[in-house]
Amino acid sequence: MPTLFYVDDSRDDLFYLDYISRKQQIDVDLFCFSTADMALEALEARAAEGKAVPDLLITDLYMPLDSGTGLVLSLRRDVRFKSMQLAICSGSDADEDRARALEAGADFYLEKPLDLAALILNLEV
What we know:
single chain, alpha/beta, 5-stranded parallel beta sheet
């Protein structure tokens, strides 16, 4: 079963993804965080316990306290998390947002609302 970390300051978006995973009975180990700091703490705890990194971490592009690009940049600099796939998501379809996400080191850019079933299917391929 794939493990997915999702970071978003929007309680509605966090609720939506969790709801969809349960409603559609998607086989995923989903962890939701409202701040980048909370996600980093969880990643560091997993590493300290010898657990594998998540298969994918998705972070929102625009958050008031910390940006998704900042989180991706810090994860890319940390050797413990180099193998983890990273995505940045947003409700924006602007080319400059997509470019910022990829320049920060994201493997891909996703538009909201997220299609969790398709994401998980692509992780398993």
